[in-house]
Structure formats: C-alpha cells, structure tokens
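Example record

The entry below shows one chain as it appears in the dataset: sequence first, then structure tokens.
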Amino acid sequence: MTTKKSGPARPRNAASLVIFRKYRNQYQVLMGRRGSKAKFKPGVYVFPGGIVERDDYVVQPKKKLKTQYTRMMAVANSHRKANGLAMCAVREAFEEVGLTLGEKGQLNAVRNNTWQHFKQLGLSPNLKLLDYLGRAITPPIQPIRFHARFFSINFEQMHGNILGDGELEDIRWVRLDQSEKLEMMLVQKMIMETLAKRLSGLSAPAQKLFFSWGRINIKRS
C-alpha cells in the first residue's frame, strides 16, 4: 500500500512592523529574539509580527493604507485584505513590544482583546503613516510557512513604553548596518537593506522574496 505524499504546507498570511529611529546619527530598528520554544525559527532576531487574525480585516482604521501598495502585496487587488495585513502589523507591535500606533478616534466593535484595548483608549490606527517594504514567502521545504508583508514606521509616531509579552526575548535596538552581529534570517537583513536605502534618500523598490531549497529568487515590484 502506497501512501500519498502531501504537498508543501500552504503559506499563512502574516505581517511585521519595522519600527525605526535615528539615534546618534545612526538608524536603528526594533527587534527581538524568538524564544527557544518557538515553533518557527527559535533563537533568531525578528521584527514584531505574526499571523493575521479575522478581526484585523474587520476593524476599521482611522485612515487606510495608501492604495498604491495594494497591487504590490499579492492580495488580488483587495484593499480590504491589504488593510487587514497592515492592521495585523500594528496589532502585533502592541502585543509583542508594547507600542501603539493610534490617533484619537473610535474603532468599530470587535472581539479581539488588543483591538478592544485600542477602543477603550479611544485610539484608531492611521495606516497612511506606514511605508510598505515588501513581502516574502517561506520556502516549501519548511513544515510551517508564511507569506509575510513588511511595513515600516518611525518610532516617533508610536506611543507607549517598550515592554515584551514574553514571546520575544532580548528586545533591543539594532543598527541597520550591524545586522551581521545577530542571528537573523536573510529576509530580515534584506528588508533592513531596503529601509536603509530609503532612509538615505535612495530608490529602493518593495522586495518580493521567494525562498526555495537554499536559494532566493528576488523580484522587484
């Protein structure tokens, strides 16, 4: 009796928020280390982020993501899906590092605890402040796969104090030109390179990164 082999795991939609600041004339990004019990890539440094939840699509931001980003995000030109991914990045930033992106405004009714917290504070995210850096898909050889989108925001636009929830360890500011000093995935390094170019005034199209069998196929949006 032969057993039919299952195909590669289907990538799950995810999003990360790359929070940056300028400190002593050097740009830095906020990162944390995945815990040793993490199911995916334990021990590596990442930006705050995670899997999209249903309420991320339901909750209405104060201002929506710039429409030109939608066609770059592989969401079948759905502005609703694009905004949901951006809201995911904002939510995860609050949950994992304690920082809030929000302006005075009211959210619609949702069940998610984080969005309930935003609602109680009278805050609503302004997604127009976000810049879109690109997307990446985990290689098919991995048992857990993500289709991650990366957004950036200036730390000056955030509120609150940096405080982890335990999911990320050793939360720290990392200089954009010193990524080699920490263990991180190639995608994080390439997203950091894109951000560094933009902050220096250079042209840097959004990344489209597809990983497979130790190789990387890079396309430009």
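Notes for this example: The longest helix spans residues 79-97. The chain has one domain: 12-220.
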